[in-house]
Amino acid sequence: MSAPPGMPVQLKTTDAVCVAYRPMAGPYAQIPAGMGRLYGWVAGHGLRPAGMPSGVYLTDPAAGEETARWELRAPLAGDHSDAPVDASGCGIKHVAAHLVAWATYRGPYERIAAAYAGIAEWIRTNGYSVAGPPEELYASEPTTPPEDTLTEIRFPVAKV
Known about the structure:
The protein is an alpha+beta fold. 17% of the residues lie in helices and 34% in strands. Strands 1, 2, 3, 4, 5, 6, 7, 8 and 9 form a nine-stranded antiparallel β-sheet that branches. It starts with 9 loop residues before the first strand and ends with a strand.
């Protein structure tokens, strides 16, 4: 299996970035409210977002959402000191540059699994291995119709 038609997989090295983040657990239906709390925290601390928000998925979705662990991230303008998660559940950290295999998926999240499978197959057949948890960058506004939603899916990779 390869990536779905119209979804070419490419390699790139990401930029190092300073992010505000919010660790999460459980159902992914919490994403909208979690993003609202994260961006509220960013604004409340006088920080400016700079770039697409993202989610990093730390556990295998096949294991079920009830035990899922994931993290929401908001890239920040400028450089800020790392800060551990505070009482509101948000913090700041730096993410190093890294090599990723990536593709842009268009469509509803309910069908995103095929895109993940296609990228994973591309990674295997092109001599790479997964080197960290996948990340989704959300390129669409929350009001975008599901069939038009754009998500950049990234897998950190290393050459085998």
